[in-house]
Amino acid sequence: MPTSEFQLIDLYFSRLGAVRADVLLGVGDDCALLQVPVGKQLAVSIDTLVEGTHFFPGVDAESLGHKSLAVNLSDLAAMGAEPAWVTLALTLPRVDEVWIEAFCRGFAGLATRYQIQLVGGDTTRGPLSISVQMHGFVDPDKALRRDRAKAGDLVYVTGTLGDAGLALLTAQGGYNPGNQSVFLQQRLDRPEPRVAVAQALCGLATGAIDISDGLLSDLGHICDKSRVGAVLQQAAIPLSDPVTDYLRATGDWSIPLAAGDDYELCLIVPADRRQQLEAVAQTLDVPLSLIGEIEAGNGIRCLDDAGHPVAVAREGYDHFRKP
Ligand code: ADP
Ligand code: MG
């Protein structure tokens, strides 16, 4: 049983993830000392997960360790950056070693897989909250920014949409997916950040965002920043079997179009790079689907099979929205 904050740090956080040559000084001093490769830009992003807001109290600690890193890796992927270093600010209600060990296992599994080293952080007592800051490298002209989309560009998404949203609805008692519940729960608890896809498409895609708040909301951010609109073909939205079953039963398209937490990527690609992009897509282990295109104007139109606009509430999750 660690008797102090410092023992806790030494036991669990001083050697976590990969060991990298560009970490000149890691956990243990006032600051970490890190070497950015010559000619690269540093991409930095932070996300906080709060118990009761981002995850249910009592959620499996290993999944939480995985997810807290995964959501940050997803942001880095959406910028086209190669992950390198991570810091972790952990607020814990008590020292529960079984919990901390499981959390670290989930966190370290993903960190090691992507050659990421934990280089510092902060450990405090209080209501359970996890802040993870990711650092990565990006070539100066290759970052996948939100403000570069142009009319005529193509809109692609990775994977399938709505799985995490359906898992959440199921957990809240609003749906019974039968024998698909394990798959859905996995999609909610263990998102796979699309780092490899983003790296492979850097130089072809000109923009990207990760779908954390729902497709319409997140693509909406690209449209707003780029001062353009978009038109989507509803039938082209990639769906898993359970979401297809759910739609057949309910017709509720808000799950794949507006529910969050999938951590798939939405990518913007100039139309003349379509063939090149689809050739690269063949080599990836995640499907890439063409779902629509950027157009002049503003807002997102979603069309059904007959080409008629469908109305879907597009709001993603907003912590400060007035009720
Ligand atoms: P300080 O008081 O100078 O902020 P701390 O006692 O908070 O130092 O941390 C001591 C060292 O341990 C620092 O190098 C810090 O980055 C690291 N550290 C603390 N908590 C964590 C954590 N949860 N994960 C990784 N490193 C941590
Ligand atoms: Mg500190």
Question: How would you explain this protein's 3D organization?
Answer:
The chain has 323 residues and is α+β, with helices and mostly antiparallel strands. The chain has two domains: 5-138, PurM-like, N-terminal domain (60s Ribosomal Protein L30, Chain: A); 154-303, Alpha-Beta Complex (Phosphoribosyl-aminoimidazole Synthetase, Chain A, domain 2). Helices cover 33% and strands 24% of the residues. It has helices at residues 5-13, 61-78, 97-113, 163-171, 181-189, 195-201, 215-226, 241-250, 254-258, 274-282; strands at residues 23-25, 33-34, 41-50, 82-92, 117-125, 129-138, 154-158, 207-211, 229-233, 264-269, 288-295, 299-303. A six-stranded mixed sheet has the order 8-10-7-11-9-12, with helices on both faces. Strands 3-6-4-5 form a four-stranded mixed sheet. A two-stranded antiparallel ribbon has the order 1-2. Helix 2 (61-78) packs parallel to helix 3. It is globular. The model has no long low-confidence stretch (mean pLDDT 94). Bound molecules: adenosine-5'-diphosphate and magnesium ion (MG). Adenosine-5'-diphosphate binds next to helix 1, strand 4 and strand 5.
